[in-house]
Design goal:
Blueprint (H helix, E strand, L loop, with lengths): L3 E4 L5 E4 L14 H36 L6 H4 L2 H8 L3 E6 L12 H4 L8 E6 L5 H11 L7 E6 L11 H7 L2 H10 L4 H11 L10 H12 L1 H38 L25 H8 L3 H5 L6 H8 L17 H14 L10 H10 L4 H10 L14 H9 L2 H14 L3 E6 L4 H4 L6 H18 L3 E2 L19 H15 L69
Parallel strand pairs: 3-4, 3-5, 5-6, 6-7
Antiparallel strand pairs: 1-2
């Protein structure tokens, strides 16, 4: 490009050049901006990874301290659960309200808090949580479960043809866990598809999550089209999982900081969703629940999920100490059993059925003509319906047990645990048989639920018990199906056996028909408690007993049925 030559002010020649509009000043090189953006991105990602690692380290410090506490965020997020699984002396238990609400000091979280026999318990659960939520959670935890012991505590909700209701599923649903399951669960495709189809049965939880809903629909569709759609969505899903992990780290740090330094002005959060209606034998207590509802059923059960700050104001006003000292030593099982029996008896001594005193008083005093009074009248007459000799066979309830979709959820949960090579133990809390014997729900009808539970566990090779030999034990469960002090001590004994390798993997059925009634004997107090013998001289929990066969249906008897209990 040519320019004009001339002389400058001091006589030097000066050349003036023309700069084209298309030259370097008009379009600077883009590389410095791109490099700056990449550097900012790298710094952000590095900081996020550091923060996640720091949160994981802090969570590991608090696992023992928060293990027994009723903190809903433990079940809603994954960081603390993974931290618990990494601990060599922590046993996670997945359950519902029975983990927190009742039976202190014999509920497992409290009983094993100071690791008397070498392990403590990490409770994970929320009221009315059911097996589909557990299946999603285990899938989301993935390889963290490999080779790890884990316990599933089920409630006897297996008597509704529709299974888990939307009202029960939604409060316990976790978007983080669902997203991680859909995009990152290391499971066979067929199993992931089966769980996805069940998750789609609850569209209300997915209506605001377009990506997750599209991924679940693609998984459920299957075939080449579904697989292609899922493959296209998966990169975005991985990004969503990573963002959820960062959010999880932030929430965990915030909650643990609140536990360590509770604010004096903190107030409890809103109440938990009300428990759903209980069909079948639990419906026999519907009148009792109805009269209690006016005074706040959730408050009675202690199910309102207090936030971390408010909880710690009551438990540790000075803040939570993450260090929980161990107190090793042999557990005096038979002495503890006597104490547990006395405590359970003292709280239910105004009726012959083991119903909590306050509940029974309300049930019988407020509505004298309800089923509680009818059961009491039958008891006083010297008769019972244990063998089905008073009331007609409850065919409708039995049909609900047989067709309940919850068995599908239970099977999927066990399949997920098997695919991840976990070492599970499962139990279902028994029905209130002592009371049900004076209602239409006879022992033969109740047996079907226990049989089906053990059958599903046997198909998956999961050691399981139904505690069915305690079905008519008035002190084993309370009036809401939670284990009592006595019931929890039996469960504690089973947990101790399981932790110390006395419950064999792949041998479902503990003793006869899933029974653990041989876990206690007069000579049980020995230095090595978990190796004690049962009263029959055998080591409980090792007998590979197949599930019992379904009992024959008794012939209907010409007897009038009581009025149906109201659903609540």
């Amino acid at each position: 490009m040519e320019g004009r030559a001339g002389r400058g002010p001091v006589g030097r020649s000066l050349e003036v050049r023309r700069v084209s509009p298309a030259g370097p000043l008009a379009h600077p090189r883009p590389w410095p901006g791109i490099l700056a953006a990449l550097l900012a991105l790298a710094v952000s990602v590095g900081w996020a990874l550091w923060y996640q690692a720091r949160a994981a380290g802090v969570a590991a410090l608090y696992v023992r301290a928060v293990g027994p506490l009723n903190l809903p965020f433990k079940a809603e997020t994954l960081l603390l659960q993974r931290a618990a699984l990494r601990q060599a002396d922590v046993l996670p238990i997945y359950g519902t309200s029975e983990l927190y609400c009742c039976a202190a000091p014999f509920n497992a979280g409290t009983f094993f808090a100071q690791a008397p026999t070498g392990f403590s318990v990490f409770n994970v659960g929320y009221p009315v949580t059911q097996d589909l939520i557990f299946a999603e959670t285990f899938g989301a935890l993935g390889r963290s479960l490999q080779g790890k012991r884990v316990v599933v505590s089920d409630s006897a909700w297996f008597d509704s043809p529709t299974g888990i209701s939307a009202g029960s599923y939604a409060p316990t649903y976790s978007p983080e866990i669902a997203t991680t399951f859909a995009f990152a669960a290391p499971l066979p495709m067929a199993l992931r598809q089966a769980v996805a189809r069940r998750m789609l049965d609850f569209p209300g939880t997915l209506q605001n999550d377009v990506l997750l809903r599209a991924a679940l629909e693609a998984l459920a569709r299957g075939g080449r089209l579904g697989d292609a759609q899922y493959a296209l969505l998966r990169p975005m899903g991985w990004l969503a999982v990573w963002l959820d992990q960062e959010r999880d780290a932030y929430q965990t740090m915030r909650h643990l900081q609140a536990l360590e330094h509770p604010a004096p002005s903190a107030a409890p959060s809103g109440p938990a969703p009300a428990a759903p209606a209980l069909p079948g034998p639990r419906a026999a207590l519907a009148d009792l629940r109805e009269v209690i509802r006016g005074e706040g059923l959730d408050a009675w059960l202690g199910l309102s999920p207090p936030n971390a700050v408010a909880l710690m104001r009551g438990i540790a006003p000075g803040g939570l100490d993450p260090v929980v000292p161990d107190r090793p030593g042999a557990i005096p099982w038979t002495a503890d059993l006597r104490t547990a029996d006395a405590m359970a008896a003292a709280q239910s001594n105004n009726n012959p059925f083991g119903v909590l005193n306050a509940h029974w008083t309300k049930c019988t005093d407020v509505e004298p003509a309800n089923m509680c009074q009818q059961a009491l009248a039958l008891y006083r007459s010297g008769r019972s319906n244990h063998d089905g000799g008073v009331y007609a066979y409850p065919g409708q309830w039995v049909a609900g047990v047989v067709t309940c979709t919850c068995w599908t959820d239970l099977s999927l949960e066990f399949q997920v645990l098997d695919a991840l090579q976990a070492r599970p133990l499962a139990w279902v809390q028994p029905l209130e048989g002592r009371y049900s014997d004076y209602t239409p729900y006879s022992a033969a009808a109740r047996q079907l639920l226990y049989t089906q539970y053990l059958s599903v566990a046997a198909a998956a090779g999961v050691p399981a018990t139904t505690f069915q030999t305690h079905d008519t034990d008035a002190l084993f469960v309370d009036s809401f199906g939670h284990l009592s002090q006595r019931g929890w001590l039996y469960a504690d004994r089973l947990l101790d056996l399981f932790w110390h390798g006395q419950v064999a993997q792949g041998r479902p059925g503990l003793a006869q028909g899933g029974s653990v009634n041989l876990l206690f004997s007069p000579a049980l107090d020995c230095p090595n408690a978990y190796a004690c013998q049962g009263v029959d001289g055998s080591r409980p929990g090792l007998a590979p007993t197949p599930p019992p066969t379904a009992p024959p249906r008794p012939a209907p008897r010409p007897a009038s049925r009581p009025p149906a209990a109201r659903a609540v």
